[in-house]
């Protein structure tokens, strides 16, 4: 029997391919990203990860098993303590300190992505949350594996650390989330599965838009008098 998550992956395949071909991802491969693009990415991703931590918190509140709670708890620690490495890689290439890129408001596409996941999470069940959260690790796991295989970076490549960080994700959190979702999807109606597919595809599209936002330095079109405060 086809796994439900395989059906999701197939549905989103054109979006995955557009992500692999996106100029920001190509710029990681060939080391040609500009300083401002790296800075914009890190500013936005720092706040994105804060939101992702909160999503795990909501997911824990809707969990019925200790093992699943433990998995989400480990992932919160992983984001807090390890997901900082790829950010530090971008910061050192850009020649800026990580601290100075923290606390910025979310730009439109990052804001859209975070709101999408949070609204699904607040209104939905654990399987809704998993469907909306899954493209985050899944697209990065595939990007990492592809870039490592294609570029075979040596230590002198500016994004060596970034590629190795995400290139080592295979068999990790993506597979664990997929198993949880597949298991739960078995007892769901076609209508519920359709809804989960919509959450998943929307997050894939927003992954693409996040790369595009960083590449084009996307910002809100009109600035307000008050621009302080991170995007919660
Ligand atoms: C926009 C955006 N999407 C995905 C990731 C990658 N990522 C974020 S948290 C996490 C671990 C999940 O438990 C992974 C793989 C990112 N950094 N930024």
TrEMBL record:
Pathway: Cofactor biosynthesis; thiamine diphosphate biosynthesis. The keyword Hydrolase applies. SUPFAM superfamilies: Heme oxygenase-like. It is an enzyme of class 3 (hydrolase). It catalyses: thiamine + H2O = 5-(2-hydroxyethyl)-4-methylthiazole + 4-amino-5-hydroxymethyl-2-methylpyrimidine + H(+); 4-amino-5-aminomethyl-2-methylpyrimidine + H2O = 4-amino-5-hydroxymethyl-2-methylpyrimidine + NH4(+). Keywords: Hydrolase, Thiamine biosynthesis. Its EC number is 3.5.99.2. Homotetramer. This is Aminopyrimidine aminohydrolase.
